Amino acid sequence: MTGFVHLGLLLIGSGCLLLLDRRFRLFFWRDPAAALVVTAIGLAFFLAWDVAGIAAGVFLRGESAIATGLVLAPEFPIEEPVFLLFLVQCTMVAYTGAARVLGSGSRGGQA
Q1: CB contact at 8 A, 61 and 76
Q2: 5-19: buried (b, 16+ CB within 10 Å) or exposed (e) per residue?
Q3: Between vectors from CA 7 to CA 73 and to CA 65, what angle results, nearest 5°?
Q4: What integer best gives the mean pLDDT of the chain?
Q5: What whole-number distance in Å separates Cα of residue 57 and Cα of residue 107?
Q6: Distance between CA atoms of 43 and 49, rounded to whole angstroms?
Q7: Which pLDDT band, with edges at 50, 70 and 90, does 9 fall under?
């Protein structure tokens, strides 16, 4: 069961980001259609980056007791697309949150 720790923590982290996003309407709850497009483009970019890195022999899958060991392709563990999705989601929630905080300061505190 310890082989699913990494995947489970990524999913829990993503769920927490969604809750934060929902609470402050930052990304998915602000404009779901635009958020899906941005997420799909970001995920596609990073997946292509990974495929290029794997093909060049730069990215290698390391063995870990907390990883599932399941691979989608050689050197491409199942945790990777979940992590990339988390990365895009985290980036966009942080970006939209920072933009809101910095933008509200310049408008005299009005949200």
Answers
A1: yes
A2: ebbeebeeebeebee
A3: 85
A4: 91
A5: 50
A6: 10
A7: very high
For 33-68, give the DSSP string. Answer: HHHHHHHHHHHHHHHHHHHHHHHTT---PPP-TTS-
Cα atoms in the 13 Å half-sphere on the side-chain side of 10: 19
Amino acid type, 34: A
> In whole angstroms, how far apart are CA 61 and each of 23, 78, 84, 98?
36, 11, 15, 34
User: What predicted TM-score, i.e. pTM, was given to this entire model?
Assistant: 0.86
Write out the two tokens for 37.
């497009």
pLDDT tens string 21-49: 999 999 999 999 999 999 999 999 999 99
Half-sphere exposure of 87 (CA within 13 A, CB side): 13
